[in-house]
Amino acid sequence: MASVPTPLREIAKVIRSKNAGPFEITLDIVFRTKADFEAVKKSGVITRELVSQLYNVPTQNIITFGFFDLINAVKITLPRPRAQGGIGETDMHAAQQHVPLQEIRVPWPAP
Amino acid sequence: MASASNDEIRILTPSGMLGYGFPVDHFKLGLALRPHAVTIDSGSTDSGPQKLGKGEMTCSREAYVKDIEVLLEAQHETRIPVLISSAGGDGTNLHVDVFRDIIAEIAKRRGWRFKLASIYADIDKAHISRELKAGRIEPLGPVPPLDQREVDAATVVVAQMGAEPFLKALDESEGVDVVVSGRAYDPSPTAAMAIRAGFDPALAWHMGKIMECGALCAEPVGRNVMGYLRRDHFEIEPLNPAERCTTASVAAHTLYEKTHPFRLAGPGGTLDLSQCKYEQVTDRRVRVSGSRFEPSRPYTVKLEGAKISGWRSIFIAGARDPIFIAQIDDILTRVIAGTRAYFAEVPEESYRIIPHLYGKNGVMGDLEPVKTAAHELCIIIEVAAATQSLATAICGKTRTSLMHTPYPGRIATAGNLASPFTPLEIPLGEACEFNVYHLMKVDSPTALFPITYAEIF
Asked: How many CB atoms lie within 10 A of CB B156?
């Protein structure tokens, strides 16, 4: 079957970011079905290296990175660029830091 | 008052956050199911360090009065205990006392009577200093090690209590109707009720972890939720008939705002959810089993504190000229250098000038993947300095320079900015910063959390 690079925002059910306490940011990608989750996992596109590049965080500083089968979800937790709510804050709740994940392209069956 | 049978304890939580309001009709549906306790959390660090730093509350006093009155009415009618944690958001002693005053005011107005237990969570700085010297405090996650200067700078430091202080409040004094606590681990009140009734602590903590967010575990997300804890499992169901819990929604709930979906550290141990089983009991109710709890030795509590780190002023302006927008980074660099030269007598490191460029990278900063700016920008310049007047002065100098500075190719020679508001410079008051977020070893889970009892009428 022909496949085309498809952005995750067209595949996943949830792609979001949020504080996990004042010093961490956590990113969730939740899939609609086990099949979607497995297909994305198998594609090998979502890696620590990709996260490192998208969020400018050395791979060794990534706090959590994993594909969690029980919940069909990818969980990524990173150190916050700055302590929450201090001088220079741009996103108190870290609720709008998910967009680079939306744009990740995964080979997907052509519609 | 209903007491938990050997087989089941039922807990009702009306909302994930006291003060946000909740549907009272659904709460009453929950009361009709004869819960053994009502629990509700009001704590969070999520809206920022200014609560701890400046003694602010998450919600208005009026909002707390509205929600607490509904809870007290339920207590008055059913006599089941009501447990409220993390008073005011930060859970400082100050806000435990605000909640006590609210309860007293409502009791007096309505002619009700309650026995109230107040549990306090401010930690004496001298105690923290001793423990720091003894090497019993360490960073929690990507946080710098604590030092004495930061302890001194913190306005107040609280610790998150576990279930034990709630157990103590309910056990050492007869007939407590209402418990108001300072900073607590959010699931603690629910876990305490279940542990007290003899149920498995792992299930108790897991059910508490889900219920502390109200019906956030439902689809669509909601407020009132009921938990049924039994010997080897618990069940969870939203009270709004239009909402349902699904195995997916309940299992995925522990992703939300957590470092790890299956390993949740709290006071006294870590909840391990990696072996949990989720079953759909009805189309709206989910059964959970297989939760595990690993006690930590020694027992640790999380310290939270914030300090005032300066005074802030901002200005907000629009930019529409494409010739200006195309050069905005260079122009700002030049303008900020000019401001710094003008304030040469102020130590350079004692103040900061930070541009926020909406329409370019205002939300994501350097991480912004889109490199082209929009056709118009909202420019916010944030200045932080040692006093309000200095912050405003630096802000003003930066604004007038940015307004009038020439730049290559400029043909709009009257002004570079569109200013929507007066005052043009807006003083924001003190800026706060989280500076304590550490784990402290404790000998006793209750010793740091004093309890007082009072008859309120």
From this structure: 20
DSSP per position, B235-257: EEEESSTT-EE-HHHHHHHTTTT
Triad A19, A20, A21: Cα angle to 5° = 95
CA distance A80 to B435: 14
Nearest CA in chain A to B436: A22
The answer to whether B8 and B228 have CB atoms below 8 angstroms apart is yes
Q: What is the mean pLDDT of residues B89-112?
A: 98
Task: Supply the pLDDT for residue B47.
Answer: 80
Predicted ipTM?
0.94
A54 touches chain B (CB under 8 A): yes
- Neighbour count for residue B60 (Cβ, 10 Å): 10
Work out the widest C-alpha separation in chain B, in whole angstroms: 82
Q: End-to-end alpha-carbon separation of chain B, Å?
A: 20
Which one of A22, A28, A96 has the shortest CB-CB distance to B45? A22
For residue B289, give every residue at least 6 positions away whose Cβ sits within 8 Å of its Cβ, in sequence order, or none.
B203, B232, B233, B234, B276, B277, B279
* pLDDT at residue B4 in the model: 62
pLDDT tens per residue, range B343-364? 999 999 999 999 999 999 999 9
Q: Which of B320, B315, B334 is nearest to B408 (CA)?
A: B334
**Cβ contacts of A77 on chain B, cutoff 8 Å:** 259-260
pLDDT at residue B276, as a whole number: 96
What is the distance of C-alpha B269 from the center of its chain? 21
Helices (H), B40-176: 50-54, 61-78, 93-110, 125-133, 148-153, 164-172
Q: What is the pLDDT of residues B141-172, one digit of tens each?
A: 999 999 999 999 999 999 999 999 999 999 99
* pLDDT of A111 strictly over 90: no
